[in-house]
Amino acid sequence: MSLINLTSTYHRSTYPSISPSKPSLSQAGRTVLITGGGGSIGCSFAKASASRVIVVGCRSGLLDEAVAKLQDEFGKAGPTEFVACQGDIAHFSPSGPDTLSMDRNKLRQAFDINVWGNFDMSAKFVQQPTDSTAKCPLYLVHVSTASSHMYPSPKLTPYSSSKTAFMALLGHIADERKVDDVQIISYHPGALYSEAASKANILQDLIKWDESKLLLRCLGSFPRGILASWTVWAHWDVNELREAAHTTNNQNNEIKTQLAEEKGYLKVGILGLPSISFAAFLNQ
After folding, report:
1. What would be one Pfam family of this protein (predicted)?
2. Are the CB atoms for 42 and 70 separated by under 8 Å?
3. 61 Cβ contact list (under 8 Å, min separation 6)
4. Would you say 20 and 51 are in contact if contact means Cβ atoms under 8 Å apart?
5. Where are the domains of the chain?
6. Which CATH number fits domain 16-282: 3.30.565.10, 3.30.2020.30, 2.30.180.10, 3.40.50.720?
7. Which helix (H) or strand (E) holds 170?
8. Residue 150: how many other CB atoms lie within 10 Å
C-alpha cells in the first residue's frame, strides 16, 4: 500500500532510472557535502563518480569508520575523494504525549537544532565563495520527514513541528533565490532502517522498510528550475516528475495542472486553502 503517491508508480526500492551507473546522473566534477551523514549515502555518490564526498558529523570515530569503508570499497586511488569533517551537529528528537508539559529546554533545543542549525548550515553553504566560471549550480537538498504530513502525530509533536518549520522557511527562501544561484528541494527519503532506529530498539521486521535513498543523488541532477522549492518523496517515480515538469500540455497531467494553478503546490501551507500572493492579499 502506498501512503502519499503523487505519481502513478510508487517505488520502495531502486530502479533503472535512478541507477548510479546512468550517464545522465554522473556526479563527475562535483563536490557533495552530506551533513549528519554516513557511508550509505556517500556510497551512492561514489558510484556516480563524484569528485569529492565530504561527510560531516559530530562523532569522529564513526566518521572515520564511514570514510574508511568507502575508501575500501571504491579504492583510495579512485575518482572520488572522501573527506570526514567533525562538527557540532546533533540529532535531537524529544518526544512525549503532552507537549505543554514537556521540559521547555528540550522543546527549545529541538527548534535550535532542526531550524537554526539547519539554517546556519544552509546560509553558509549558499553564501560560500565560489568560482565565478563554474558551470555547475549549487543544489541544496533538505532531508525532511513524513511526520510533517501526520495529523495527529502522537509523541512526535516537537520533532515534526520543528522539521516542518524549517521546511516552510526553506520553501520561502527558495522563492527568493534564482535557480541559477541555487536549487532548493525538500526530500522525504522514505522509511529507512537506520542506526537511530536500531538504538531505539525498533525491530527490523516491524514494518516493510524502504530502499529508496538513491533518489537523493538523482535530485542533484535535475535541470535548473525542475523541482525547485518542491517537497518530494523518494517513492515518487522520477520519470513522471520529469514529464510533468517538461510537458507543455496540462491536459491529463494533474501535476502540471496543479503547478500552473497553485503556486503553493508541494509546499508547506494551510490544508484546504489555496495559496495567495502577497500582492493579491493587499489588493483584496
Report:
1. adh_short
2. yes
3. none
4. no
5. 16-282
6. 3.40.50.720
7. helix 157-176
8. 13
Q: How far apart are CA 258 and CA 163, in angstroms?
A: 25
Strands 52-57 and 231-233 come out as: unpaired
* Residue 6 grid coordinates: 503523487
Q: Which H helix or E strand runs over 118?
A: helix 118-126
Q: What is the pLDDT of residues 13-62, one digit of tens each?
A: 888 888 878 888 888 888 888 887 655 566 667 777 788 888 887 777 77
pTM of the predicted model as reported, rounded to 2 decimal places = 0.84
Rounded to the nearest 10 degrees, the angle between the axes of helix 157-176 and helix 104-111 is 30
Could you report the per-residue pLDDT of 158-169, keeping only the tens digit for each? 889 999 999 999
Q: Residue 174 has which C-alpha cell?
A: 527558495
Q: Which of 272, 237, 275, 270 is nearest to 259 (CA)?
A: 275
225 C-beta neighbours (distance < 10 Å), count:
12
Q: What does the alpha-carbon distance between residue 239 and residue 25 come to, in Å, rounded to a whole number?
A: 13
